[in-house]
Structures are given as structure tokens and as C-alpha cells.
Amino acid sequence: PKGLVVFCHGTIQDREASPSKWTGKENGSEAETATLAFASGGYAVVIPDYLGLGDHKATHPYPRNIINAQSAVDIIEPARELARKNNYNIGPKLYVTGYSEGGGVAMAAMQKLEKMNGDVYRVERSAPASGPYDVAGATREFMLVQPTEQVGFVIRLYLLSYAAYYLRKHSNVKITDYFRPAMANSIWLNYNANPVDETLIKRLGLTAVLMRSKNSLSNIITPRFKRAMETTDRRDPLVAALLNDNVYDWAPRTPMLLVNLEGDGVVSPQNTANAFAAMRRRGVGAGSMRRYIIKDASLNHITAVPAAMSAARRFFDGGFAAIPEAR
Description:
alpha/beta; 327 residues; single chain; Rossmann fold; six-stranded parallel beta sheet
């Protein structure tokens, strides 16, 4: 037994797609990919549901790295207790990784874990992958890029709508403060219906077509929200949330491998670049932190998950020596 891997999953809003709902059958989910990547090498794997997912009926806080990181921290002791009760020797070491939204959650979890006492919380190595670490900078700037091709436009629509819907449910902020009436109504109706993510994205995309958006966010968001995003106006609740959830500018003590896909069209690689640069400025050298870039033009954000987890697995197995490409 090599230890316990905490894997933090990517963005979903469909509770039935939550890690706790996975039955172990082949379905191409992140839960399956992470389990195959690490359990096949002798690691125990635990994948927390975030708030608002699984059996929790509240709305998922999105994109809230710090809030959701508590799920990753809180699952460690119960996972070890379950192993003890079932006489599973999983080993004492702890590893943390995650992908996409889960990359940001993994980074925030590391910040929390390094402040905690006790061997149970001491992490051997961590590998956040393709996460929105700089949400107020790199991620915000990525959202504002326009016009974009259809896929990129719909991705931005999905991510911004998720954030606005959470604020409406959690803080009673009006969706019409962020989106024009037709899109605001579509967001409210479709998120409340809790369809699978693919159906949700298609419905929002169809609404955008009917609004003649021409793949431009300016045609579906309000001018007020656009100005707030462009000026990083923290008086706006959504912008303030982004500013509060930056997790890139710190100095980890635990060996860390930053992983990202070159040309990622969903989570801007600039997030990883900014985290790497900030950590270097804070004196974190190559002996403690390196970056591994997946250079494969045939991959996209979704299909790169196995490659990212393979890199994390190599790093967990053998440290930086096992990832000579990392710099």
C-alpha cells in the first residue's frame, strides 16, 4: 500500500454525476479515471462530493475554491477510519490532486492542510492540474475574450451562468443583474430542472442562438456586469467572489507538480503560468515545485484528464525524478 490519494473532481451540476453516485461500472467519468490511475498502482483513492452535490440538496458553490476545499480536508479522517474498520492497510502517506475545478480545489486544500497539525494531514506530494487558481485574473480575462468560436462561447456561458445561479440561490442576487432577460430566464428554469450537464449546456446554447448572440458574451450579459468584470469591481458580488478565491499566490512547502494542457480552451493555461511565476517569486525553487505541460494537440480539456492523472501518478510514485520533462 502506497497511501491515500484525495482526488478533487471537475465541474458538474448534475448530482447524479457526483463521485458518490459512481457504482464502479465503466462510464468514462472522472471518478473512474482517477480510480484507475491510482488504485491500479497500489493507492487508496477517495473522491469527495462538494457542497451542493451528491446527497446535499443546496446549490453547489461555484467557482469557490476555498469553500469546496473543505470537502477534501474533511474526507481524510473518515476515509482512514473506514479503512481501519475494514482492516484495509492503505499506508500512512497522503497525496492530493484534482483536475479543472478540482485543480483549484486541490490547491486550496493544500493551503488548508499545510496550516493543520497532525500527521494525518501531512501531505507527501500534491499535483493540482489545469485549475482556475487565478480566478480574478487569468480566469476573469479568459471569460471576457470575445467574440469566440461557438464551443468557446458556450463554455464561457456555462461557467458564468453557473456562478450567477449559485449567487441567486445563496445570496438572492438577481440573475438579471448579470444576464439579459431571455438568458436569465433560461438559466433559472434549466438549472432548477437539474438536467444532465450536456443537456443543460445545449439548452443554454439554444437560447443564445435564439437571442442572436453571434457567439458574443456582450449580446447575452448585461452592460453593467461587463463593466464590472472589465474593471474588477469588487462591489459586484460575483467579482468579489472571484477576488476572494484566488489560490495561486503563495509558497507551498509540500512538493508540488503543476500540470496543465497546452492550449486548453476551458481553463486558461495562464492560471498555471501565473501560479508557477508567483511561487517562484516567493522563493519556491525547482526542488519543491515544478510545472509539467501536456503537449498534445489531439487532446482537449476533457480528454486530457487521463494524461494529467498519469503525470500525477508518476510524480506520486517517484517524485520529480519520475517527471524529467517538468521544469
